[in-house]
């Protein structure tokens, strides 16, 4: 099959999950083409894997994430969605794909539906209408035993509100008579196949249709060579891995750097390419104390560390749990906050509010000390790690794509 992959290439997590599946599909003989090339995107990671990449229109991440962080339910303007749909369709006409697979491309359900192209998507349970846990816990002020009974009402209310405020998706569905109504709630899912990069123990669902499948976390190994200083030397100190993704705006890498050194910890800090002037600020690797890199092989860093500090991204959380490492999350968008509520509920980590960190950076040191001094966090993470072993999510995704769409 000729398969067109549509990630939101300004965010590495949406690129990396598709890359993991695309590798397997290419090995099985399918032709894989990506869209998403352009300045300031993560398309270089796609090109490094040897995939052809075409340009198309994407919303500026500063505009998109600012709206999301500000709690604006209408996260995309009508003219932006219109332009995304038209851009999708231009790529379809050029590529003529047999199948479209999207990750984070919330126009693709509509565009593929209009052009009648088979369509799949990789998504988290939190971005589906079948999630069993509220995205916005309206009744969190109640005792948990009572709030749980109100989950169905909570879910109905939040979806109704979201879909009616961000109603551009419904308008397009009605205008073009699409067979599947697209809404703000389900716009990241697939018309014909939805691959949920989660496990049920982490994110449960309810009333799941037959074309929705848990495949497990799609964690990406970049195949990067280790830095010259590897392996890290810590002089007996606990080693913290600090990785804030590629879109973090919740704090200062400079503050984190000095905080770690001041309190006698050892850390690997990856900046995701966000810190361009580290040398000018006097931030550098100090062997035995702190190691500063733009990117590093995450799996190897997590194996070497005692705990992970991150922004609460789904992929980073799963990567940490695969290695049995507890987590401190500093979420800045609702998805990350949702993830961290689950981390705390499972007893594998602690959430810190960005405002609390900004007010007093020592809250991070206190959380680090608490996790290091409380063995149950590590024990719970190691227990969850055992549940993630042997899942082979990329193979399962490829199997489902072939079973659903193959002409043979």
SSE topology:
Elements: E1 2-7, H1 12-27, E2 31-37, H2 43-48, E3 52-55, H3 61-69, H4 78-95, E4 99-103, H5 108-114, E5 119-123, H6 144-147, H7 151-165, H8 168-175, E6 193-196, E7 212-214, E8 239-243, H9 253-262, E9 266-270, E10 290-293, H10 298-304, E11 307-310, H11 314-322, E12 327-329, H12 334-345, E13 349-351, H13 354-359, H14 362-373, H15 375-388, H16 393-405
Parallel strand pairs: 1-2, 1-4, 2-3, 4-5, 5-6, 6-7, 8-9, 8-11, 9-10, 11-12, 12-13
Helix pairs in contact: 1-16, 4-5
Describe this structure in words.
This is UDP glycosyltransferase. It comes from Geoalkalibacter halelectricus. It holds the Pfam family EryCIII-like_C. With about 400 residues, this protein is an alpha/beta fold. Helix 4 (about 80-95) crosses helix 5 (about 110-115). The mean pLDDT is about 90. The chain is globular. The chain contains 16 helices and 13 strands. It folds into two domains: about 1-215 and about 390-405, Glycogen Phosphorylase B (Rossmann fold), CATH 3.40.50.2000; about 240-390, Rossmann fold (3-Layer(aba) Sandwich), CATH 3.40.50.2000. The strands form two sheets. It has a seven-stranded parallel sheet with strand order 3-2-1-4-5-6-7, sandwiched between helices. It has a six-stranded parallel sheet with strand order 10-9-8-11-12-13, with helices on both faces. It has helices spanning about 10-25, 45-50, 60-70, 80-95, 110-115, 145, 150-165, 170-175, 255-260, 300-305, 315-320, 335-345, 355-360, 360-375, 375-390, 395-405, and strands at about 1-5, 30-35, 50-55, 100-105, 120-125, 195, 210-215, 240-245, 265-270, 290-295, 305-310, 325-330, 350. The longest helix has 18 residues, at about 80-95.
């Amino acid at each position: 099959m000729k398969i067109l992959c549509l990630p939101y290439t300004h965010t590495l997590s949406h690129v990396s999950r598709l890359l993991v599946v695309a590798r397997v599909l290419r090995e099985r003989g399918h032709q894989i083409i990506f869209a998403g090339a352009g300045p300031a995107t993560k398309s270089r990671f796609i090109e490094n894997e040897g995939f052809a990449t075409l340009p198309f229109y994407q919303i500026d991440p500063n505009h998109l994430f600012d709206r999301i962080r500000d709690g604006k339910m209408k996260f995309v303007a009508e003219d932006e969605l219109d332009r995304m749909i038209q851009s999708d369709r231009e790529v379809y006409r050029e590529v003529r794909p047999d199948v479209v697979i999207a990750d984070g491309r919330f126009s693709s359900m509509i565009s593929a539906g209009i052009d009648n192209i088979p369509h799949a998507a990789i998504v988290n349970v939190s971005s589906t209408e079948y999630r069993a846990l509220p995205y916005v816990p309206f009744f969190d002020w109640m005792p948990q035993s009572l709030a749980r009974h109100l989950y169905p009402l909570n879910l109905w209310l939040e979806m109704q509100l979201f879909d009616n405020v961000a109603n551009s998706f419904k308008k397009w569905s009605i205008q073009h008579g699409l067979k599947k109504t697209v809404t703000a709630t389900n716009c990241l899912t697939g018309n014909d196949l939805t691959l949920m990069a989660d496990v049920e123990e982490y994110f449960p669902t309810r009333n799941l249709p037959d074309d929705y499948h848990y495949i497990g976390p799609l964690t990406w190994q970049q195949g990067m060579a280790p830095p010259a200083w590897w392996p890290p030397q810590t002089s007996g100190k606990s080693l913290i891995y600090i990785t804030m993704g590629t879109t973090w705006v919740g704090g200062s890498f400079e503050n984190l750097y000095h905080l770690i050194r001041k309190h006698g910890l050892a850390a690997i800090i990856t900046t995701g390419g966000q810190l361009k002037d580290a040398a000018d600020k006097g931030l550098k690797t100090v062997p035995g104390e702190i190691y500063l890199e733009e990117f590093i092989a995450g799996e190897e860093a997590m194996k070497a560390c005692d705990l992970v500090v991150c922004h609460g991204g789904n992929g980073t959380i799963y990567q940490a749990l695969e290695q049995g490492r507890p987590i401190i999350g500093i979420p800045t968008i609702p998805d990350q906050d949702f993830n961290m509520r689950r981390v705390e509920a499972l007893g594998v980590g602690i959430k810190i509010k960005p405002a609390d960190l900004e007010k007093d950076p020592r809250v991070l040191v206190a959380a680090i000390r608490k996790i290091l001094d409380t063995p149950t966090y590590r024990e719970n993470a190691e227990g969850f790690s055992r549940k993630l072993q042997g899942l082979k999510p990329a193979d399962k995704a490829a199997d489902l794509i072939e079973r659903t769409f193959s002409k043979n």
